[in-house]
Amino acid sequence: MTTLSIQPPYPIITGADGQPLEDGYVWIGTANLNPITNPVAVYWDAALTQPAGQPVRTRGGYPVNAGTPARLYVGSDYSILVQNKNGSTLYSALTATERYSDVVVQVDSSDVTFLQAGSGAVVRTAQAKMRDVVSVKDFGAVGDGVTDDTAAIQVALNSGATNICGSGLSYLLSSTLSVPANTVFDGEGATLLLSVTTSAGSAMSVGDGCEVKNWKIQSNVPGTKKGYYGIAIPQTSSNVFVHNVQLKDIQYSAIDNAGNSVRIFDVTAQDCGWDLIQNYRADGTGPRNVHVHRCRAIRTGRHGFSTDTGCRDIVFEDCVAIDVGNPTLNEGKDAYHYEGCFQTVVKNCIANYTGNHPAVTTTPVALFAAFREFASTDCVIDGLIVIVEGGFAPITGATWRLFYVEDATTNFVVRGVTMLNKSATVFGLLWGNTDAQEILEFSNFDIQGPHSWTQNGASGGCRRISDGTFIGTGVETSINNQYKTYNSEVSNVSFKGVAKAIRMAGFQNSVIKNCRFYDVYSYGIELDWFAYTAEYRPSAGAIIGCYFSGTANGKLLKSADSQDALTFANNVINGTASVGLEAQNTSVKGFGNIVTGTVTTAQTGTNSTGAFNSNLNNLASV
Q: Is 395 helix (H, G, I), strand (E, B) or coil?
Protein backbone atom coordinates (compact mmCIF):
# COMPACT_ATOMS: atom_id res chain seq x y z
CA MET A 1 0.00 0.00 0.00
CA THR A 2 1.37 3.41 -0.98
CA THR A 3 1.51 6.07 1.74
CA LEU A 4 -0.18 9.30 0.69
CA SER A 5 0.43 12.80 2.01
CA ILE A 6 -2.70 14.87 2.46
CA GLN A 7 -2.11 18.48 1.51
CA PRO A 8 -4.43 21.47 1.92
CA PRO A 9 -6.04 22.44 -1.37
CA TYR A 10 -4.68 25.95 -1.20
CA PRO A 11 -1.50 26.87 0.70
CA ILE A 12 -1.93 29.91 2.93
CA ILE A 13 0.18 33.05 3.14
CA THR A 14 0.59 34.49 6.64
CA GLY A 15 1.62 37.88 7.89
CA ALA A 16 4.30 38.71 10.44
CA ASP A 17 1.82 38.10 13.25
CA GLY A 18 1.17 34.56 12.02
CA GLN A 19 -2.36 35.39 10.94
CA PRO A 20 -3.68 34.90 7.37
CA LEU A 21 -2.57 37.80 5.19
CA GLU A 22 -5.54 40.00 4.24
CA ASP A 23 -5.39 42.32 1.21
CA GLY A 24 -1.71 41.60 0.70
CA TYR A 25 0.42 41.86 -2.47
CA VAL A 26 2.49 39.09 -4.08
CA TRP A 27 5.08 40.01 -6.76
CA ILE A 28 6.85 37.34 -8.85
CA GLY A 29 9.89 38.29 -10.97
CA THR A 30 13.07 37.19 -12.69
CA ALA A 31 15.41 35.27 -10.43
CA ASN A 32 17.99 37.47 -8.69
CA LEU A 33 16.18 40.65 -9.76
CA ASN A 34 13.60 42.93 -8.19
CA PRO A 35 10.21 41.29 -8.93
CA ILE A 36 8.38 44.63 -9.03
CA THR A 37 10.54 46.06 -11.80
CA ASN A 38 11.34 42.71 -13.42
CA PRO A 39 8.12 40.66 -13.40
CA VAL A 40 7.73 37.26 -15.08
CA ALA A 41 4.63 35.54 -16.30
CA VAL A 42 2.58 33.92 -13.57
CA TYR A 43 -0.37 31.56 -14.18
CA TRP A 44 -3.42 30.21 -12.35
CA ASP A 45 -3.00 26.69 -13.82
CA ALA A 46 -0.20 24.12 -14.07
CA ALA A 47 -0.56 24.11 -17.89
CA LEU A 48 0.45 27.80 -17.86
CA THR A 49 -2.57 28.84 -19.95
CA GLN A 50 -4.35 31.25 -17.52
CA PRO A 51 -2.21 34.34 -16.89
CA ALA A 52 -2.38 36.03 -13.46
CA GLY A 53 -1.98 39.79 -13.35
CA GLN A 54 0.51 41.24 -10.92
CA PRO A 55 0.57 42.05 -8.13
CA VAL A 56 -1.53 39.09 -7.06
CA ARG A 57 -3.87 40.05 -4.16
CA THR A 58 -4.60 37.92 -1.10
CA ARG A 59 -7.79 37.41 0.85
CA GLY A 60 -7.88 35.43 4.08
CA GLY A 61 -4.31 34.35 3.39
CA TYR A 62 -5.00 32.89 -0.09
CA PRO A 63 -4.03 34.22 -3.51
CA VAL A 64 -7.41 34.91 -5.14
CA ASN A 65 -8.52 34.62 -8.75
CA ALA A 66 -11.77 36.50 -9.27
CA GLY A 67 -12.49 36.20 -5.55
CA THR A 68 -11.71 32.47 -5.37
CA PRO A 69 -8.66 30.92 -3.60
CA ALA A 70 -6.15 29.64 -6.14
CA ARG A 71 -2.60 28.40 -6.66
CA LEU A 72 0.13 30.24 -8.53
CA TYR A 73 2.45 28.64 -11.12
CA VAL A 74 5.62 29.74 -12.90
CA GLY A 75 7.70 28.07 -15.59
CA SER A 76 11.19 28.90 -14.30
CA ASP A 77 13.19 30.06 -11.33
CA TYR A 78 11.85 33.28 -9.85
CA SER A 79 12.20 35.99 -7.25
CA ILE A 80 9.34 36.85 -4.86
CA LEU A 81 8.20 39.79 -2.73
CA VAL A 82 5.23 39.68 -0.30
CA GLN A 83 3.83 42.92 1.12
CA ASN A 84 0.97 43.68 3.51
CA LYS A 85 -1.88 45.99 2.57
CA ASN A 86 0.18 49.00 3.65
CA GLY A 87 3.01 48.12 1.31
CA SER A 88 5.36 46.97 4.08
CA THR A 89 7.59 44.08 3.11
CA LEU A 90 6.83 40.80 4.87
CA TYR A 91 9.01 38.48 2.78
CA SER A 92 11.55 38.89 0.03
CA ALA A 93 13.73 36.31 -1.78
CA LEU A 94 15.75 36.86 -4.97
CA THR A 95 15.73 33.18 -5.78
CA ALA A 96 13.19 30.59 -4.71
CA THR A 97 13.92 27.54 -6.85
CA GLU A 98 14.14 25.09 -3.98
CA ARG A 99 11.51 26.62 -1.78
CA TYR A 100 8.67 26.92 -4.21
CA SER A 101 9.36 24.99 -7.44
CA ASP A 102 6.03 25.27 -9.23
CA VAL A 103 3.86 26.69 -6.38
CA VAL A 104 4.40 30.17 -4.96
CA VAL A 105 2.65 30.16 -1.54
CA GLN A 106 4.27 28.97 1.68
CA VAL A 107 6.69 31.34 3.45
CA ASP A 108 9.45 30.22 5.83
CA SER A 109 9.39 32.44 8.94
CA SER A 110 13.20 32.61 8.96
CA ASP A 111 13.03 34.36 5.58
CA VAL A 112 10.29 36.83 6.54
CA THR A 113 11.43 40.16 7.93
CA PHE A 114 9.69 41.89 10.82
CA LEU A 115 9.92 45.54 11.80
CA GLN A 116 8.31 46.69 15.04
CA ALA A 117 6.38 49.95 15.00
CA GLY A 118 8.10 52.95 16.52
CA SER A 119 11.23 54.97 16.03
CA GLY A 120 14.50 53.08 16.36
CA ALA A 121 13.10 49.58 15.72
CA VAL A 122 15.40 47.17 13.96
CA VAL A 123 14.58 44.51 11.40
CA ARG A 124 14.40 40.91 12.62
CA THR A 125 13.09 37.72 11.10
CA ALA A 126 9.53 36.65 11.84
CA GLN A 127 10.95 33.44 13.29
CA ALA A 128 13.02 35.35 15.86
CA LYS A 129 10.01 37.48 16.76
CA MET A 130 7.74 34.47 17.31
CA ARG A 131 10.37 32.77 19.46
CA ASP A 132 10.43 35.64 21.94
CA VAL A 133 7.82 33.63 23.87
CA VAL A 134 7.53 29.85 23.77
CA SER A 135 4.19 28.18 24.45
CA VAL A 136 3.94 24.86 26.25
CA LYS A 137 1.67 23.89 23.34
CA ASP A 138 4.71 24.07 21.07
CA PHE A 139 5.98 20.99 22.90
CA GLY A 140 2.81 18.95 22.84
CA ALA A 141 0.78 20.16 25.83
CA VAL A 142 -2.92 19.70 25.05
CA GLY A 143 -4.48 22.02 27.63
CA ASP A 144 -7.89 20.36 27.84
CA GLY A 145 -7.75 19.81 31.63
CA VAL A 146 -8.07 16.04 31.15
CA THR A 147 -4.87 14.96 29.39
CA ASP A 148 -1.84 14.69 31.69
CA ASP A 149 0.37 17.50 30.36
CA THR A 150 3.13 17.23 33.00
CA ALA A 151 5.75 15.73 30.67
CA ALA A 152 5.05 18.09 27.77
CA ILE A 153 5.25 21.19 29.98
CA GLN A 154 8.49 19.97 31.50
CA VAL A 155 9.96 19.49 28.02
CA ALA A 156 9.05 23.10 27.25
CA LEU A 157 10.70 24.25 30.49
CA ASN A 158 13.82 22.26 29.65
CA SER A 159 14.01 23.57 26.08
CA GLY A 160 16.42 26.38 26.92
CA ALA A 161 13.84 29.07 26.25
CA THR A 162 13.69 31.65 29.02
CA ASN A 163 10.15 32.89 28.44
CA ILE A 164 7.53 30.11 28.62
CA CYS A 165 3.80 30.79 28.43
CA GLY A 166 0.74 28.71 29.27
CA SER A 167 -1.48 30.19 26.54
CA GLY A 168 -4.43 30.55 28.93
CA LEU A 169 -5.52 26.89 28.90
CA SER A 170 -6.04 24.22 31.62
CA TYR A 171 -3.32 21.64 32.22
CA LEU A 172 -3.55 18.50 34.35
CA LEU A 173 -0.44 17.75 36.44
CA SER A 174 0.55 14.49 38.09
CA SER A 175 3.94 15.54 39.50
CA THR A 176 5.96 18.64 40.30
CA LEU A 177 7.23 20.86 37.50
CA SER A 178 10.82 22.06 37.81
CA VAL A 179 11.22 25.64 36.59
CA PRO A 180 14.88 26.23 35.57
CA ALA A 181 16.82 29.24 36.81
CA ASN A 182 16.15 32.64 35.22
CA THR A 183 12.93 31.53 33.51
CA VAL A 184 9.82 33.65 33.10
CA PHE A 185 6.86 31.24 33.47
CA ASP A 186 3.75 33.16 32.43
CA GLY A 187 0.43 31.33 32.53
CA GLU A 188 -1.37 34.09 30.62
CA GLY A 189 -4.39 33.17 32.75
CA ALA A 190 -3.85 29.40 32.45
CA THR A 191 -4.81 26.87 35.15
CA LEU A 192 -2.70 24.06 36.60
CA LEU A 193 -4.89 21.25 37.96
CA LEU A 194 -3.23 19.13 40.65
CA SER A 195 -4.25 15.48 40.68
CA VAL A 196 -2.14 13.88 43.46
CA THR A 197 -1.55 14.47 47.18
CA THR A 198 2.00 13.16 47.64
CA SER A 199 5.09 15.25 48.36
CA ALA A 200 5.93 14.99 44.65
CA GLY A 201 2.62 16.57 43.73
CA SER A 202 3.29 20.30 44.14
CA ALA A 203 2.57 22.41 41.09
CA MET A 204 6.12 23.65 40.67
CA SER A 205 9.52 24.06 42.26
CA VAL A 206 11.07 27.37 41.22
CA GLY A 207 14.73 27.95 40.42
CA ASP A 208 17.00 30.90 41.11
CA GLY A 209 16.03 34.21 39.50
CA CYS A 210 12.66 33.00 38.19
CA GLU A 211 9.46 34.95 37.64
CA VAL A 212 6.13 33.11 37.95
CA LYS A 213 2.99 35.02 37.03
CA ASN A 214 -0.61 34.88 35.82
CA TRP A 215 -1.41 31.31 36.90
CA LYS A 216 -4.32 29.65 38.64
CA ILE A 217 -3.28 26.59 40.65
CA GLN A 218 -5.94 24.35 42.16
CA SER A 219 -7.18 20.84 42.80
CA ASN A 220 -8.61 18.98 39.82
CA VAL A 221 -11.54 18.05 42.11
CA PRO A 222 -13.21 21.21 43.49
CA GLY A 223 -13.50 21.10 47.28
CA THR A 224 -10.92 18.28 47.62
CA LYS A 225 -7.43 19.37 48.64
CA LYS A 226 -4.74 18.12 46.23
CA GLY A 227 -1.08 18.71 45.57
CA TYR A 228 1.40 19.21 48.40
CA TYR A 229 2.40 22.84 48.08
CA GLY A 230 1.27 25.11 45.29
CA ILE A 231 4.63 26.76 44.61
CA ALA A 232 7.84 25.63 46.34
CA ILE A 233 10.83 27.96 46.47
CA PRO A 234 13.82 25.91 47.72
CA GLN A 235 16.66 27.17 49.88
CA THR A 236 18.98 27.21 46.87
CA SER A 237 16.80 29.77 45.07
CA SER A 238 16.89 33.54 45.46
CA ASN A 239 15.63 36.61 43.60
CA VAL A 240 12.32 34.90 42.83
CA PHE A 241 9.25 36.97 41.89
CA VAL A 242 5.76 35.43 42.11
CA HIS A 243 2.81 37.63 41.21
CA ASN A 244 -0.78 37.55 39.99
CA VAL A 245 -1.28 33.93 41.05
CA GLN A 246 -4.45 32.36 42.50
CA LEU A 247 -4.29 29.13 44.50
CA LYS A 248 -7.20 27.08 45.81
CA ASP A 249 -7.68 23.74 47.61
CA ILE A 250 -3.96 23.08 48.06
CA GLN A 251 -3.25 20.35 50.64
CA TYR A 252 -0.68 22.33 52.64
CA SER A 253 0.75 25.83 52.07
CA ALA A 254 -0.03 27.68 48.86
CA ILE A 255 3.58 28.91 48.76
CA ASP A 256 6.40 27.22 50.68
CA ASN A 257 9.38 29.56 50.72
CA ALA A 258 12.91 28.72 51.84
CA GLY A 259 14.66 31.21 49.53
CA ASN A 260 16.21 34.63 50.09
CA SER A 261 15.27 37.89 48.34
CA VAL A 262 11.81 36.72 47.34
CA ARG A 263 8.85 38.90 46.30
CA ILE A 264 5.28 37.61 46.50
CA PHE A 265 2.82 40.16 45.07
CA ASP A 266 -0.93 40.00 44.35
CA VAL A 267 -1.38 36.36 45.30
CA THR A 268 -4.66 34.89 46.60
CA ALA A 269 -4.90 31.60 48.48
CA GLN A 270 -8.33 30.19 49.28
CA ASP A 271 -9.33 27.07 51.23
CA CYS A 272 -5.76 25.79 51.42
CA GLY A 273 -4.78 23.44 54.23
CA TRP A 274 -2.04 25.59 55.79
CA ASP A 275 -0.87 29.12 54.93
CA LEU A 276 -0.81 31.45 51.96
CA ILE A 277 2.94 31.54 52.52
CA GLN A 278 5.14 29.87 55.07
CA ASN A 279 8.73 31.11 55.30
CA TYR A 280 10.58 28.11 56.67
CA ARG A 281 13.82 26.15 56.47
CA ALA A 282 14.29 22.76 58.07
CA ASP A 283 17.80 23.70 59.25
CA GLY A 284 16.45 26.65 61.26
CA THR A 285 18.42 29.34 59.42
CA GLY A 286 15.29 30.90 57.94
CA PRO A 287 14.73 32.83 54.69
CA ARG A 288 15.78 36.48 54.55
CA ASN A 289 14.61 39.59 52.71
CA VAL A 290 11.09 38.49 51.74
CA HIS A 291 8.41 41.00 50.72
CA VAL A 292 4.79 39.85 50.60
CA HIS A 293 2.55 42.57 49.14
CA ARG A 294 -1.18 42.88 48.36
CA CYS A 295 -1.90 39.21 49.06
CA ARG A 296 -5.15 37.65 50.33
CA ALA A 297 -5.50 34.55 52.50
CA ILE A 298 -9.10 33.31 52.59
CA ARG A 299 -10.04 30.44 54.93
CA THR A 300 -6.51 29.05 54.98
CA GLY A 301 -6.45 26.25 57.52
CA ARG A 302 -3.47 27.13 59.72
CA HIS A 303 -2.16 30.69 59.39
CA GLY A 304 -2.69 33.36 56.81
CA PHE A 305 0.97 34.46 56.64
CA SER A 306 3.78 32.89 58.67
CA THR A 307 7.49 33.09 59.40
CA ASP A 308 9.51 30.51 61.30
CA THR A 309 12.79 30.08 63.14
CA GLY A 310 15.67 32.17 61.83
CA CYS A 311 13.66 34.31 59.40
CA ARG A 312 14.93 37.86 59.07
CA ASP A 313 13.71 40.99 57.26
CA ILE A 314 10.28 39.66 56.31
CA VAL A 315 7.60 42.23 55.35
CA PHE A 316 3.86 41.61 55.01
CA GLU A 317 2.38 44.76 53.49
CA ASP A 318 -1.19 45.61 52.41
CA CYS A 319 -2.25 42.01 52.95
CA VAL A 320 -5.64 40.62 54.01
CA ALA A 321 -6.45 37.49 56.03
CA ILE A 322 -10.11 36.43 56.09
CA ASP A 323 -11.46 33.70 58.41
CA VAL A 324 -8.11 31.93 58.63
CA GLY A 325 -7.70 28.92 60.90
CA ASN A 326 -9.40 25.54 60.72
CA PRO A 327 -10.83 24.85 64.20
CA THR A 328 -10.06 21.15 63.86
CA LEU A 329 -6.36 21.61 63.03
CA ASN A 330 -4.21 20.62 65.99
CA GLU A 331 -2.13 23.78 66.36
CA GLY A 332 -2.45 27.54 66.75
CA LYS A 333 -4.26 29.47 64.05
CA ASP A 334 -3.13 33.04 63.34
CA ALA A 335 -3.74 35.58 60.62
CA TYR A 336 -0.09 36.73 60.92
CA HIS A 337 2.39 34.46 62.68
CA TYR A 338 6.00 35.17 63.75
CA GLU A 339 8.07 32.46 65.40
CA GLY A 340 11.74 32.78 66.29
CA CYS A 341 12.35 35.51 63.73
CA PHE A 342 14.10 38.88 63.55
CA GLN A 343 13.23 42.31 62.15
CA THR A 344 9.94 41.34 60.58
CA VAL A 345 7.13 43.78 59.82
CA VAL A 346 3.35 43.72 59.39
CA LYS A 347 2.37 46.96 57.63
CA ASN A 348 -1.11 48.21 56.73
CA CYS A 349 -2.68 44.76 56.87
CA ILE A 350 -6.19 43.49 57.70
CA ALA A 351 -7.56 40.50 59.59
CA ASN A 352 -11.28 39.92 59.07
CA TYR A 353 -13.43 37.43 60.99
CA THR A 354 -16.94 36.76 59.69
CA GLY A 355 -17.47 33.41 61.42
CA ASN A 356 -17.34 31.51 58.13
CA HIS A 357 -14.89 28.88 59.40
CA PRO A 358 -15.03 25.20 58.49
CA ALA A 359 -17.41 23.05 60.51
CA VAL A 360 -16.04 21.71 63.79
CA THR A 361 -15.73 17.91 63.75
CA THR A 362 -13.25 17.44 66.62
CA THR A 363 -12.28 19.40 69.72
CA PRO A 364 -10.57 22.56 68.48
CA VAL A 365 -7.33 24.05 69.72
CA ALA A 366 -8.00 26.77 72.24
CA LEU A 367 -6.41 29.75 70.52
CA PHE A 368 -6.99 31.90 67.46
CA ALA A 369 -5.04 35.16 67.04
CA ALA A 370 -4.96 37.98 64.54
CA PHE A 371 -1.23 38.20 65.28
CA ARG A 372 1.09 35.89 67.23
CA GLU A 373 4.73 36.47 68.08
CA PHE A 374 6.80 33.68 69.57
CA ALA A 375 10.41 34.12 70.76
CA SER A 376 11.09 36.85 68.19
CA THR A 377 13.22 39.99 68.28
CA ASP A 378 12.94 43.53 66.86
CA CYS A 379 9.59 42.94 65.14
CA VAL A 380 7.06 45.64 64.27
CA ILE A 381 3.38 46.02 63.54
CA ASP A 382 2.85 49.30 61.70
CA GLY A 383 -0.82 49.36 60.77
CA LEU A 384 -3.22 46.46 61.39
CA ILE A 385 -7.01 46.53 61.14
CA VAL A 386 -8.97 43.72 62.77
CA ILE A 387 -12.69 43.52 61.95
CA VAL A 388 -15.02 41.08 63.70
CA GLU A 389 -18.39 41.01 61.96
CA GLY A 390 -21.66 41.15 63.90
CA GLY A 391 -22.61 37.67 62.73
CA PHE A 392 -19.46 36.17 64.19
CA ALA A 393 -20.21 33.42 66.71
CA PRO A 394 -17.57 31.90 69.02
CA ILE A 395 -16.51 28.32 68.50
CA THR A 396 -16.93 26.16 71.58
CA GLY A 397 -13.57 25.63 73.25
CA ALA A 398 -11.78 28.35 71.26
CA THR A 399 -10.27 31.56 72.61
CA TRP A 400 -9.75 34.62 70.44
CA ARG A 401 -6.91 37.13 70.64
CA LEU A 402 -5.94 40.30 68.84
CA PHE A 403 -2.32 39.60 69.78
CA TYR A 404 -0.64 36.65 71.45
CA VAL A 405 2.93 37.34 72.51
CA GLU A 406 4.97 34.65 74.21
CA ASP A 407 8.30 33.07 75.10
CA ALA A 408 11.13 35.58 75.31
CA THR A 409 9.86 38.06 72.74
CA THR A 410 11.90 41.28 72.89
CA ASN A 411 11.78 44.76 71.35
CA PHE A 412 8.28 44.32 69.94
CA VAL A 413 6.64 47.52 68.66
CA VAL A 414 2.92 47.86 67.82
CA ARG A 415 1.61 51.02 66.12
CA GLY A 416 -1.55 51.96 64.29
CA VAL A 417 -3.88 49.13 65.34
CA THR A 418 -7.64 49.32 64.90
CA MET A 419 -9.99 46.63 66.20
CA LEU A 420 -13.69 46.91 65.44
CA ASN A 421 -15.48 44.07 67.22
CA LYS A 422 -19.15 44.08 66.23
CA SER A 423 -19.82 40.70 67.84
CA ALA A 424 -20.44 39.65 71.44
CA THR A 425 -17.24 37.57 71.56
CA VAL A 426 -14.54 38.99 73.83
CA PHE A 427 -11.23 39.30 71.97
CA GLY A 428 -8.03 39.32 74.03
CA LEU A 429 -5.97 42.32 73.05
CA LEU A 430 -2.45 41.41 74.06
CA TRP A 431 -2.09 38.07 75.75
CA GLY A 432 1.26 36.81 76.98
CA ASN A 433 2.86 33.85 78.64
CA THR A 434 4.67 33.99 81.96
CA ASP A 435 7.96 33.83 80.06
CA ALA A 436 9.84 37.05 79.60
CA GLN A 437 8.52 39.49 77.04
CA GLU A 438 9.51 43.04 76.33
CA ILE A 439 7.04 45.06 74.32
CA LEU A 440 8.52 48.47 73.70
CA GLU A 441 5.44 50.25 72.39
CA PHE A 442 1.70 49.94 71.83
CA SER A 443 0.53 53.23 70.31
CA ASN A 444 -1.88 55.01 67.98
CA PHE A 445 -4.66 52.47 68.43
CA ASP A 446 -8.45 52.38 68.39
CA ILE A 447 -10.13 49.44 70.15
CA GLN A 448 -13.93 49.18 69.97
CA GLY A 449 -16.17 46.39 71.20
CA PRO A 450 -15.73 43.54 73.71
CA HIS A 451 -12.06 43.12 74.58
CA SER A 452 -9.69 42.03 77.33
CA TRP A 453 -5.97 42.59 77.87
CA THR A 454 -3.83 40.21 79.87
CA GLN A 455 -0.05 40.29 79.92
CA ASN A 456 2.29 38.24 82.07
CA GLY A 457 5.72 39.67 81.39
CA ALA A 458 8.55 38.89 83.78
CA SER A 459 10.77 41.41 82.01
CA GLY A 460 8.44 44.29 82.68
CA GLY A 461 5.59 44.05 80.21
CA CYS A 462 4.75 46.80 77.76
CA ARG A 463 7.06 49.80 78.16
CA ARG A 464 4.83 52.39 76.57
CA ILE A 465 1.10 52.43 75.86
CA SER A 466 0.04 55.72 74.32
CA ASP A 467 -2.23 57.71 72.05
CA GLY A 468 -5.18 55.41 71.79
CA THR A 469 -8.81 54.69 72.63
CA PHE A 470 -10.61 51.81 74.33
CA ILE A 471 -14.41 51.70 73.95
CA GLY A 472 -16.06 48.77 75.70
CA THR A 473 -19.35 47.23 76.71
CA GLY A 474 -18.94 47.14 80.50
CA VAL A 475 -17.13 43.80 80.79
CA GLU A 476 -13.58 44.68 79.77
CA THR A 477 -10.26 45.06 81.51
CA SER A 478 -8.61 47.19 78.87
CA ILE A 479 -5.02 47.10 80.15
CA ASN A 480 -4.09 44.27 82.48
CA ASN A 481 -0.49 43.48 83.35
CA GLN A 482 -0.69 40.60 85.81
CA TYR A 483 2.96 39.98 86.50
CA LYS A 484 5.33 42.91 86.79
CA THR A 485 5.32 46.51 85.58
CA TYR A 486 8.42 48.66 85.78
CA ASN A 487 9.85 51.61 83.88
CA SER A 488 6.59 51.76 81.95
CA GLU A 489 4.27 54.53 80.80
CA VAL A 490 0.59 54.79 79.91
CA SER A 491 -0.17 58.18 78.37
CA ASN A 492 -2.79 59.95 76.30
CA VAL A 493 -5.18 57.00 76.34
CA SER A 494 -8.98 57.27 76.62
CA PHE A 495 -11.24 54.64 78.18
CA LYS A 496 -15.01 54.57 77.86
CA GLY A 497 -17.59 52.08 79.07
CA VAL A 498 -15.13 49.46 80.30
CA ALA A 499 -15.21 47.54 83.59
CA LYS A 500 -11.57 48.17 84.53
CA ALA A 501 -9.49 50.62 82.53
CA ILE A 502 -6.01 49.86 83.87
CA ARG A 503 -4.85 47.06 86.14
CA MET A 504 -1.13 46.73 86.80
CA ALA A 505 0.72 44.45 89.18
CA GLY A 506 4.17 45.25 90.55
CA PHE A 507 3.85 48.92 89.56
CA GLN A 508 7.46 50.14 89.87
CA ASN A 509 9.02 53.36 88.60
CA SER A 510 6.13 53.76 86.19
CA VAL A 511 3.66 56.49 85.31
CA ILE A 512 0.06 56.85 84.14
CA LYS A 513 -0.46 60.33 82.75
CA ASN A 514 -2.82 62.45 80.68
CA CYS A 515 -5.36 59.64 80.36
CA ARG A 516 -9.15 60.01 80.17
CA PHE A 517 -11.63 57.76 81.97
CA TYR A 518 -15.32 57.92 81.04
CA ASP A 519 -18.04 55.73 82.60
CA VAL A 520 -15.69 53.13 84.05
CA TYR A 521 -17.77 50.55 85.91
CA SER A 522 -15.37 48.98 88.41
CA TYR A 523 -11.93 50.61 88.66
CA GLY A 524 -10.36 53.42 86.73
CA ILE A 525 -6.90 52.33 87.87
CA GLU A 526 -6.04 49.29 89.96
CA LEU A 527 -2.49 48.78 91.23
CA ASP A 528 -1.71 45.40 92.73
CA TRP A 529 1.14 43.28 94.08
CA PHE A 530 1.96 40.01 92.37
CA ALA A 531 3.45 37.08 94.31
CA TYR A 532 3.99 39.14 97.50
CA THR A 533 7.78 39.13 97.17
CA ALA A 534 10.09 42.11 97.47
CA GLU A 535 10.96 41.89 93.76
CA TYR A 536 7.40 42.63 92.76
CA ARG A 537 6.44 45.17 95.43
CA PRO A 538 4.83 48.26 93.86
CA SER A 539 6.91 51.38 94.42
CA ALA A 540 7.71 54.83 93.08
CA GLY A 541 4.78 55.16 90.71
CA ALA A 542 2.79 58.21 89.63
CA ILE A 543 -0.67 59.08 88.30
CA ILE A 544 -0.55 62.57 86.83
CA GLY A 545 -2.82 64.82 84.79
CA CYS A 546 -5.65 62.32 84.31
CA TYR A 547 -9.34 63.09 83.89
CA PHE A 548 -12.08 60.98 85.49
CA SER A 549 -15.63 61.59 84.31
CA GLY A 550 -19.05 59.97 84.00
CA THR A 551 -21.54 58.30 86.27
CA ALA A 552 -19.89 54.93 86.78
CA ASN A 553 -20.38 53.31 90.17
CA GLY A 554 -16.79 52.11 90.40
CA LYS A 555 -13.69 53.34 92.17
CA LEU A 556 -11.36 55.88 90.68
CA LEU A 557 -8.21 54.32 92.06
CA LYS A 558 -7.44 51.13 93.91
CA SER A 559 -3.98 50.75 95.36
CA ALA A 560 -3.58 47.53 97.28
CA ASP A 561 -0.93 45.76 99.28
CA SER A 562 2.07 47.90 100.08
CA GLN A 563 2.21 50.34 97.19
CA ASP A 564 5.13 52.48 98.27
CA ALA A 565 5.56 56.15 97.34
CA LEU A 566 2.60 56.57 94.97
CA THR A 567 2.09 60.10 93.62
CA PHE A 568 -1.42 61.25 92.63
CA ALA A 569 -1.19 64.78 91.25
CA ASN A 570 -2.91 67.32 88.99
CA ASN A 571 -5.85 65.03 88.22
CA VAL A 572 -9.44 66.10 87.64
CA ILE A 573 -12.46 64.20 89.00
CA ASN A 574 -15.66 65.28 87.26
CA GLY A 575 -18.44 62.79 87.80
CA THR A 576 -19.70 60.27 90.28
CA ALA A 577 -17.67 57.51 91.88
CA SER A 578 -18.40 55.31 94.87
CA VAL A 579 -14.84 55.48 96.23
CA GLY A 580 -12.07 57.90 95.29
CA LEU A 581 -9.19 55.84 96.65
CA GLU A 582 -9.19 52.33 97.99
CA ALA A 583 -5.78 51.88 99.55
CA GLN A 584 -4.34 49.04 101.59
CA ASN A 585 -0.93 49.47 103.26
CA THR A 586 -0.19 52.29 100.84
CA SER A 587 1.89 55.44 101.08
CA VAL A 588 0.38 58.15 98.87
CA LYS A 589 1.45 61.70 98.11
CA GLY A 590 -0.84 64.08 96.27
CA PHE A 591 -1.21 67.66 95.17
CA GLY A 592 -3.00 69.84 92.64
CA ASN A 593 -6.03 67.58 92.18
CA ILE A 594 -9.38 69.15 91.30
CA VAL A 595 -12.76 67.68 92.24
CA THR A 596 -15.88 69.01 90.47
CA GLY A 597 -17.97 65.88 90.78
CA THR A 598 -19.18 63.64 93.56
CA VAL A 599 -17.21 60.96 95.32
CA THR A 600 -19.35 59.06 97.83
CA THR A 601 -16.35 57.94 99.88
CA ALA A 602 -13.18 59.92 99.62
CA GLN A 603 -10.95 57.10 100.78
CA THR A 604 -11.23 53.68 102.25
CA GLY A 605 -8.71 51.13 103.44
CA THR A 606 -6.38 50.48 106.32
CA ASN A 607 -2.80 51.14 107.31
CA SER A 608 -2.34 53.83 104.69
CA THR A 609 -0.52 57.12 105.07
CA GLY A 610 -1.18 60.26 103.13
CA ALA A 611 -4.73 59.19 102.30
CA PHE A 612 -7.20 61.45 100.45
CA ASN A 613 -8.79 64.26 102.42
CA SER A 614 -12.50 64.87 102.18
CA ASN A 615 -12.46 66.77 98.92
CA LEU A 616 -9.55 64.97 97.25
CA ASN A 617 -8.01 68.31 96.36
CA ASN A 618 -4.86 67.51 98.24
CA LEU A 619 -3.71 64.49 100.12
CA ALA A 620 -3.59 65.16 103.82
CA SER A 621 -0.84 63.85 106.02
CA VAL A 622 -2.17 61.29 108.45
A: coil
